Protein 1
Amino acid sequence: MIASILDNDDVHFEHRGAGYVIHRLGPQNWAVRRDDGRTVGSLVIVSEEGEEHEPVYGGIIAGQSETDYEGSDWESIVRGLVNEELEAESEEATNGA
């Protein structure tokens, strides 16, 4: 499990063999970046309290403005953003080769 984003300004984690960081931008939004600084997307709080009485988070893919993922499990949302980026890179490599 990744350390709490609510308690830390920067949280480092590994996913599919690469390093990433979740960096706090404000009280309700974070940037998700690779260790090399490239932005993968962002995580925002879309509602202070959802059905489970926990915040509802939204994941936004870099370059977009709408949430692609929403839910109370921010860790899964962040990993989903990373997976989207890795799949896009794989597709570009396949089509560009």
Protein 2
Amino acid sequence: MVLLAPFGWLALLLAPQQELPSGNVFRDQWETLEFQGKRIGSRHQEYHNFPKEEADLPKGCRKIRETLTLEMNRFGQPIKLKQVREDLEDASGNLLAANMEQSQNNKITLQLKASRGDRGWILLNQTSGAQKIQNPSMIPLGMAALEEKILSGQPGPWNHYEPMVHSFVQVQPRTKGDPSQIEVHFKGPNGETLPMAATLLNLGNRNRIQVREFDMPGLGRITARPTDQAEALKPAKNALDVGNLGLIPLNKSLPKVPTPSRVVYRLHAPEELDLAKLLSSDERQEVRLLPDGFVELTALKGQPPTRRIAPPPPREYMLVSRMVDHTDNIIRSMAQASGAFNDDSWTAAKRLERYVKSTLIADASAPISSAAEAARSKHGDCRHAAILLCALCRAAALPARTATGLVYIERSKPGVGRAPYLGFHMWTEVYIDGQWIGLDGTLGKGGITPGHIKVGDQSWYQEDSMAPLIPIQKLIGMVQADILKVD
């Protein structure tokens, strides 16, 4: 069972992976997936058992195959997402192996595998070849056994492999007075907090799930309802456009000329989101919690680096990762072609920013990919531009990372014309003279503006999933914002 759907910014998809054995299907079940009352896809689980003559498998084992499918638009461009996960369990429900593939528009974007080895569990990212070893403190359960234990009222906690973070996690169910409502919470392998919201299960007769609610990163709260195959596979009448879901309306527009040097915002979100803690504070951005629970955020226009003596940043901002694969030949060639090696650090960084702007063709339907893949396809959106620019900076010996947050944009609004919003955005930060300086490969203007509101940053070192993007995705559909002052 999937208690939390492992999609990252709705850009990842699983397609079937045929490594685990196939048995006899003895049960299957279907659910419709809805967002804000609108159908967006389906969830299907197949339960397989195995004949006695299959000597390579423990007696009584079973395989659970779960398929999530979504169809929607992103800024008018169609996106088809599919995720297939398989867990192999022994007769006691203990996990024997797991795999997962994600694809978008029929292109595989991620393959993960968990298997037992001599030194512990081997977690393999088959897309990049990276692997790590984990030794969970408890025997991990497969997804079917985990759901059965939760529904039986057992207190837990249990251990479970969660592909969204490509790690084993601790799963803890809780009830709040009403035994028919169960909240399922997640922590890291050592009990640390994870950026994963709780799943809510509403139970009916015989403790069967009537409604399942979970957060899908980049979209919001999803409702899953049991149904039959015919109903689950009915196409949606009008495809949902997820590109517009994250837009936060503003009360006024920012002037285009001259570019503001400072903007003061007033933001509000539900208390449990802890907006003041979630938003980043640094030399360019100040966050202040107001007595009424609102947050005041002051954002400055990005400035060129000033000369200062400072220690170098941690090594992770120059190391290769699955997403920032800057040692790839195409990244090295692009960095050389940009002319960045002929200039001082700041001039080189701006040259690389302009190079990404001129090279990458805007494409909101492009699957999230590594820097090298984006360089080869030359298609993408702000995520691809940020990761590609980060890789090019590292190839030019400039420590770099990506930043996620919100950005000021204007969109057409019926009856209004152009209207101001804050929308999800991703850009790049480069380390020069002891300072992290923002660059935006989608704009190519030599820095960022007070319209950029930062939530967090990522080095992508040793990251095998899209989990670094989760903090910004918590804001989607949860924040209200006004512009208080423009200088």
